[in-house]
Amino acid sequence: GNSVTQMEGPVTLSEEAFLTINCTYTATGYPSLFWYVQYPGEGLQLLLKATKADDKGSNKGFEATYRKETTSFHLEKGSVQVSDSAVYFCALSVPSGSARQLTFGSGTQLTVLP
Amino acid sequence: AAGVIQSPRHLIKEKRETATLKCYPIPRHDTVYWYQQGPGQDPQFLISFYEKMQSDKGSIPDRFSAQQFSDYHSELNMSSLELGDSALYFCASSLSGAATNEKLFFGSGTQLSVL
């Protein structure tokens, strides 16, 4: 079956620190990979995605590269801000006919201190 | 741009009551997904609909049912509520059929509290 394993949190960083949140996956077929962010009291928002090996997704200073050889999709940001404090979910989807569903990791709580 | 709209935003029920959650997808999106996120948990897929037909089924309890209507909105009906049903229920929509469309758009969720 499909599964996503995420780095356990919580993660606490100072503003302008470097961020890495590890994510590895197991999937049948050729999955698409995603990072979603959830701010307090809000729904999930797509942060970035990659649909094939060696693709790099990027948005708002965050980056993640689809590494098929290591089955990984680690999230990185060079300089975090207080406003980046949220829960980050790594996810994958494998097309199944006309329907697709996401398999999520357990989420990583990030807190950035001023 | 219009997003996925869920109602109500918050819902408080007592054990053994029923609840109905509604989801209005982005216009022209024909596929709807329901997810349940317990406190501190990752979202779990419940069920999805494509063109008003159930397309996938996940870990949805038998006490729950859902349907998609002709205008593509969906309703999740929950009966005999239990304390463990307290969670954030997300709806997401997508436009199926496009091979390159891997994006799901999520609503803000309905927070259900069962007392």
Mean pLDDT of chain B: 89
Radius of gyration of chain B: 14 Å
Biggest sheet descriptor of chain A? 6 strands, mixed
Question: How confident is the prediction overall: mean pLDDT of chain A?
Answer: 90
* Structural class category of chain A: mainly beta
Please give a structural write-up.
- The complex is a heterodimer of chains A (114) and B (115).
- Chain A has 114 residues and is mainly beta.
- Chain A is 0% helix and 50% strand.
- Chain A is built from no helices and twelve strands.
- In chain A, strand 5 and strand 6 form a beta hairpin.
- Chain B has 115 residues and is an all-beta fold.
- Chain B is 0% helix and 50% strand.
- Chain B has no helices and eleven strands.
- Chain B is globular.
- The model of chain B has no long low-confidence stretch (mean pLDDT 89).
- The interface between A and B is medium-sized, with 24 and 28 residues.
List keywords for this structure.
heterodimer, A: 114 residues, mainly beta, six-stranded mixed beta sheet, 12 strands, globular, B: mainly beta, seven-stranded mixed beta sheet, four-stranded antiparallel beta sheet, 11 strands
Quick summary of this structure?
The complex is a heterodimer of chains A (114) and B (115). Chain A has 114 residues and is an all-beta fold. Chain A has no helices and 12 strands.
Give the arrangement of secondary structure elements.
The complex is a heterodimer of chains A (114) and B (115).
Chain A: E1 3-6, E2 11-14, E3 19-21, E4 23-26, E5 32-38, E6 44-50, E7 56-59, E8 62-65, E9 75-77, E10 86-93, E11 102-104, E12 108-113
Parallel strand pairs in A: 2-12
Antiparallel strand pairs in A: 1-4, 3-9, 5-6, 5-10, 7-8, 8-9, 10-11, 10-12
Chain B: E1 5-7, E2 10-13, E3 19-24, E4 31-37, E5 44-50, E6 53-57, E7 64-68, E8 74-78, E9 87-94, E10 105-106, E11 110-114
Parallel strand pairs in B: 2-11
Antiparallel strand pairs in B: 1-3, 3-8, 4-5, 4-9, 5-6, 7-8, 9-10, 9-11
